[in-house]
Specification:
This protein has about 475 residues and is of the alpha+beta class. It folds into three domains: about 210 residues, Alpha-Beta Plaits, CATH 3.30.70; about 130 residues, Alpha-Beta Plaits (2-Layer Sandwich); about 110 residues, Immunoglobulin-like, CATH 2.60.40. Helices cover about 20% and strands about 25% of the residues. The chain is built from ten helices and 20 strands. Strands 7-1-6-3-8-10-9 form a seven-stranded antiparallel beta sheet. A five-stranded antiparallel beta sheet has the order 12-13-11-15-14. Helix 2 crosses helix 3 and helix 5 packs across helix 7.
Length: about 475
């Protein structure tokens, strides 16, 4: 069973800005985020349909708190520019204005938008949702006049179908969706409140990667040319000499550079960059280059005895072959104290088979290499900033539950290199970092790699050994 919301935009425009982006970037939100849709339905209920039973509406909205499919018309981004007056605009001799963008999506007004949820609503919630949808007058900013209704099926064939991305799908965008378990009260927070609390996305929500299937093109023909894919590769490091875990960033970058040279043609998985050279905006599906020390040694001088390349989006056979051809990692003069390193592939396959020590499960995870927040600290204390960033990254990039607690541990992070090799970064590029302990309500599975430069080996969390043995 499905619940399908049909939305028509008679003016052919949808005005909304992506969550986490500034309006002056000129980038409209597309597809319309389920979080915004639920907020609009909630507001319409309270302002226009307050007579409806709370239980019916809450049941309907709670069941819609899952990523839907979108049947969409083709969109073209556009924007208007306004010079908005400031407070002193009417003062004598002053005409102070601020340039503000109004980004919007231009669509065919004859092609409706369909949002399809895979749910089975009871009669009461269905009737309540239908009445609220009929009362919805705009979606996004108030310029987005719309007409909505609950329909039994998709009546018009839309040129685009958007759905949540699978592990092997190309990520086209990220859409803000409610997080499970869903709490109706989370919808009440305004964007201003979210920003004042130092967050990009509201509590109770997370960014879900979406992929687009172009329905105007026929499906590719079936083929027998099956090619295997691998989630992880483990490389053994020659025992003499071995670099220390304090130089994990250098070793990770050297391995990445060597793999790209061997692959010879651009690889999004190995490089983390699109063919245009822009960074991937997905959920960190490309390769992580991790350094592991024997056991769970917690000192910066522990030797690196193996390297793991983990790609949640999976490595192709050609990318695996490129890693297998890497024999030496040579830092040269760019990283003093890092010797030339001989490596060889020791295992490949699923991450649970290749590196079980970083998978868990465990309710407690402790950072083996320092965690570096990906965003600047605003008005929060350092500990609060770390807690906020950990919770954000677990939700946005790892699809893991909100932690029960986050504690900053004692430890000298200055012994660990926190910058990339020249010419990428000079010595002034070192970032402030912290050792962190994350506790969850229940055991969770890793890997858990968070923060800035997590693709080069920083922010690697290992399961607590004592707790992992009980899980």
């Amino acid at each position: 069973m499905t619940a399908i919301l049909q939305v028509e935009f008679p003016w052919g425009k949808y005005h909304a800005t992506e969550w986490g982006r500034n309006v002056n970037e000129g980038q409209p939100e597309w597809p319309p985020s389920p979080w915004r849709i639920l907020r609009a339905l909630f507001a319409t209920w309270k302002t226009c349909c307050a007579h409806l039973r709370d239980a019916d509406v809450e049941s309907a909205l709670s069941q819609l708190a899952k990523p839907p499919m979108f049947h969409l018309p083709t969109m073209r981004p556009a924007h208007l520019r306004h010079y908005m007056p400031q407070v002193g605009h009417h003062s004598v001799g002053k005409q102070v204005t601020t340039l503000t963008f109004d980004p919007f999506a231009v669509i065919d007004p004859q092609v409706p938008v369909y949002i399809e949820w895979d749910v089975d609503l009871a009669e009461g919630p269905t009737a309540a949702l239908g009445e609220i949808a009929a009362a919805l007058s705009y979606l996004g900013r108030s310029e987005s006049i719309c007409k909505a209704e609950l329909v039994p099926r998709v009546e018009h064939s839309a040129p685009e179908l958007w759905r949540p991305a699978g592990s092997n799908d190309r990520i086209e965008t990220e859409v803000l969706c409610p997080q499970q378990p869903f709490k109706l009260s989370d919808l009440l927070q305004s964007p201003d409140t979210v920003r004042k609390n130092g967050r990009i996305v509201p509590p109770g929500s997370h960014l879900v990667p979406y992929t687009k299937a172009d329905l105007t093109q026929s499906a590719p023909p079936a083929t027998d040319d099956w090619r295997p894919a691998y989630a992880a590769v483990r490389l053994a490091v020659h025992p003499r000499p071995r670099p220390t875990i304090s130089n994990a960033v250098v070793v990770g970058e050297l391995l990445r550079r060597a793999a790209l040279r061997k692959h010879s043609v651009p690889s999004e998985t190995l490089s983390g960059k699109q063919p245009s050279g822009d960074r991937n905006r997905g959920r960190h599906e490309h390769a992580h280059y991790l350094s592991l020390a024997p056991g769970h040694r917690s000192d910066a001088g522990a030797p690196i005895d193996s390297l793991v390349v983990w790609a949640p989006g999976r490595l192709s056979g050609d990318e695996l072959a490129a890693l297998a051809q890497v024999k030496w990692l040579r830092a040269g003069r760019s990283a003093s104290g890092v010797p030339d390193i001989a490596v060889a592939v020791a295992a490949f396959g699923e991450i649970e088979e290749v590196a079980p020590a970083i998978v868990g499960p465990s309710p407690i995870w402790i950072s083996r290499t320092p965690f570096v927040p990906g965003r600047h600290r605003q008005k929060l204390s350092w500990d609060d900033h770390i807690q906020t960033e950990i919770a954000r990254e677990l939700s946005v990039y790892r699809d893991l539950p909100e932690p029960a607690s986050v504690a900053v541990l004692d430890g000298d992070t200055r012994r660990y290199r926190r910058r990339r090799l020249p010419p990428k970064e000079a010595i002034g590029g070192s970032r402030r970092a912290a050792f962190v302990e994350i506790r969850f309500q229940h055991p969770v599975r890793g890997p858990i790699i968070l923060g800035s430069m997590s693709h080069f080996g920083l922010g690697l969390f290992l399961p607590d050994e004592s707790e992992s043995s009980r899980a």
